Amino acid sequence: MDRYKLNIEPDDNGTFLVTCPALPELTTFGETEAAALAAAQDALVGIAGQYARRDIDLPPGDAMPGEAAARLPAMARAKMALARAMRRAGVTQVALARRMGIDDRQVRRLLDPHVASGLDQLEQAFATLDLALRIEVQPMAA
Fold first, then answer.
1. 3-71: which CATH architecture?
2. Which GO terms describe its molecular function (predicted)?
3. Of 3, 31, 91, 107, which has the fewest beta carbons less than 10 angstroms from its beta carbon?
4. How many CB atoms neighbour CB 134 within 10 A?
5. Are 27 and 18 a contacting pair, CB within 8 Å?
6. What is the full DSSP assignment across 70-139?
């Protein structure tokens, strides 16, 4: 499950405070409730990148249908899966870059959830690790 429950509360300065029980480091705010939700979504992507850099898996999402939630985008999930696959294979960014015949800065970009990457680049990276990237379409949880 990739939806993380959010607590949204009016703050004492007229803004909305957002926290996430599953990810205590996710604390943000917005001038409106919609802006607070957007900030939480962006913060979730940033936290996913921090976890990937520290070689830590994100905890599972915990949002129930109807609850305010932030969803980790598919591209960020793919990048997290690549980081996890590299970690399990004992392959560093530099080693993956060599195997792919690219600069190691490109691998860093492949792992950064805030940087747009082509699906073909991710497929190549997974293939280099003898893995296949699969895409699955499922109904969205409420």
1. 2-Layer Sandwich (3.30)
2. DNA binding
3. 31
4. 6
5. yes
6. EE--HHHHHHHHHHHHHHHHT--HHHHHHHHTS-HHHHHHHH-TTS---HHHHHHHHHHTT--------P
